[in-house]
Amino acid sequence: MTLKYLAASALMLMSFDVSDAAFEAYTQTIPGTEVSFGMTPIPAGTFSMGSEKHEDAQPVHPVKIDAFWMGTHEVTWDAFEMFLDKNYELAISEGPIEDQVDGLTRPSIPYLDMTFGMGKEGKPAIGMTQYGAIQYCYWLYLKTGIFYRLPTEAEWEYAARAGSETEYFFGTDASQMNEYAWTQENAEETTHSIGQKKANPWGLYDIYGNVLEWTSDQYDPAYYGVSPDENPTNPSTELYPRVVRGGSYDTPAAEISSSKRYVTTADWKRIDPQIPKSQWWFPEAPFLGMRLVRPLDPPSEEEILAYYEAKPITDY
Amino acid sequence: MKLENSRRDFIKTSALVTGGLMTSPFVLPGAYAAPANELKLALIGCGGRGTGAAFQAMETGHNIKLVAMADAFRDRLDNSYNALVGKYGAEKIAVSEDMKLTGFDAYKQAIAEADVVILATPPGFRPIHFEEAVKQGKQVFMEKPVAVDAAGIRKVLAAAEEAKAKKLNVVVGLQRHYQANYIETIDRIHNGDIGEIINGQVYWNDGGVWVRERQPGQTEMEYQMRNWYYFNWLCGDHINEQHVHNIDIANWVKQGYPVKAEGTGGRLVRTGKENGEIFDHHVLTFTYEDGSVIHSECRHFPGAQNRVDESFQGTKGTAYLSAGNHGVLKDWKGNVLYEHDRKNQPNPYQVEHDKLWAALFNGEYKFADAENAAKSTMTAIMGRYATYSGKPLTWDEALNGQVDLMPETFAWDAMPKVLPGDDGYYPHAVPGKTKVI
């Protein structure tokens, strides 16, 4: 399949499945600030999830996914840092912080430099736990009224594949990875500003490389054998391992693909000097970030709050 | 009882600025001597870091029994106990109800129960706790910084001498001294790989730390104790509490302590009632005896770009170090002379305990970190004195400072020396006006 064909089929899919005229790319401004981010529509469809190449990504099985928007880019520090610190949010906002946002639990400000010296502006926010990533979504919900959440593993893979059935969304030629991704080979051991490389056919930047991206799923190597075939999700019940996707600036290009499953490990908090260890930060995962999803058809408010208000698991 | 009598040669350990330390036997208090079969531990200060240190002690795999816990607050103690007993069980965490000691004097009895103590309260208490531990002849792991003012430093230096005389091991949580990239790279600097060090820059620039909201019914003493980071008698300002790490690296690289400090600082973006009296930025130059200068910078500015690392320039090349396992030496043409392998490095917080407890169970006297820790802490305090007063001052002036920040009385209904005004704001230093020594 050529890239041109892929892109064309992707467009067709979109035009076929999108009945709601409002289902198009948009820019979300964080109310009261000048900070914004892009959301890209991902049409509903069915795809083959998994790969013969990876033992834990089998069997390859058909999965039907409902439509959603996905963050055009990884979440940046510019947006994430407002959630970190109420005073900072207040300082750069045009008005006071709304009461419900004011009352939200925010991260303990990290004792360590969570940018790891790699810089902030335009760069992906890094090192947050899944709990921290979801609480960021909660903060955004309170600010915008829109249900933002983490992608499921299936949604992530579907969006990354963008209609392709090959190992990479750009086909089978790994040497092209340099055009699309910051990897161990070209990133020089650091995160890079979002959107410097070419997007995938559905318009998602840095879906491979730069930083690993959180999903909402627990990691189960056998899950594909029992997974439901519509909108599968395997909610997290244990702290480790959970699924992260996409590879990072620290991953060799040859190990990155749409189907490759990466897992979190307790070692990422190894040098946290405090017990219990932080619910919010991985001081040894500068390669981990997040990307948002917004379902086209949001669940009830009760379900939304249940998602956001799930209690963190204490980490010793 | 088996005692080792022969004195071993001086060993050179790169973990110590002061060079060699004698490896020789110590006598553990109580009915046994080295090598030990079991050692009793007391935890003084049961917050996140103290609990973390107790975990690291337990993780060494030696036969350690936690026998006493002390904290000002029962809730902090309970959280810590529950985490420890949940992980290691009641046989290792053998802290009976009457050994859960709370209040300002709890440390004394806890120290008495143990062979080894972890001192991890807010740093203002460290001098009196360290003094007591050494007086009682106990082995010590204590957290940095080790004091908040010159009066406290003088206590720690005196106790450090006594600890040496008693051959008590003292490890201090300046864990970069137990981190391979620092040890390996600074060894090479000391070997002259980049010539004489004539200049350097050390940074702790980040977004700041936690605030705990004032609760109804809290006394002023309890409020300040809960928010210890924002009060100098407890914390010594963030230049002391955090930046001491980087300043200590400058001293380690320079193999000495600055003779003079001058600088500027203030409260610019973190100015709330909840932010107590500390500054949010300090910028300093420290001058060493040979005339070389180290630039030091620390700030708590949310949103600004962070940086926590150290750079040095020598007559033949440059060095770059960070807690993220960097260790790079280059010549002035940019050629890499040495680069530390950053992957799969051991956790320095664990290494410091592995080394300490191995020595303790072997009956060895190997660690005397207190003097360097006191002098590096003093360097940070001297920095604060310079930024608070807005005047340059010498090491001797700073070390002889007579201003004692500690309250006259330690009790929940007693008053700390710094109190909020009618508007709820705390007074803070004003450079040009404030007297610091």
From TrEMBL, chain B:
Matching Pfam families: GFO_IDH_MocA, GFO_IDH_MocA_C3
Domain GFO/IDH/MocA-like oxidoreductase: 188-319
Domain Gfo/Idh/MocA-like oxidoreductase N-terminal: from-to ranges: 40-165
Superkingdom assignment: Bacteria
Listed name of the protein: Gfo/Idh/MocA family oxidoreductase
